[in-house]
Please model this.
Amino acid sequence: MLESFQLNFVIYACFYSVVMFFFGVVIALIDIPLAYVLQKEIPDEYRGRVLSIVLSIGKMMLPAAMLSSGVLLNLIPTYVIPVAGGLLFLLFNMRSSNKLNIELTSENKST
Model:
């Protein structure tokens, strides 16, 4: 991505370190609230089982995701994958949040 600038390798290392730091912050900002919601919503007697299944499924999907992204990187331009993934994630969240709002609204009106 930065090959046309002919910079020192230290600058490349600093750039990628900053990028990876921000990725880590974003992942933490998503992961911690998600874990909080799961722990709050799942009843105590099922929490361990449900969380272990969720984590197991996530760990099992990781090799398939890495394999598919490697294949896709050879077939399409690099910038398309994060943009397409971000758009799919946005659409999924918009669809899920619409269902969640309907469920919460119907619960509030019934009380």
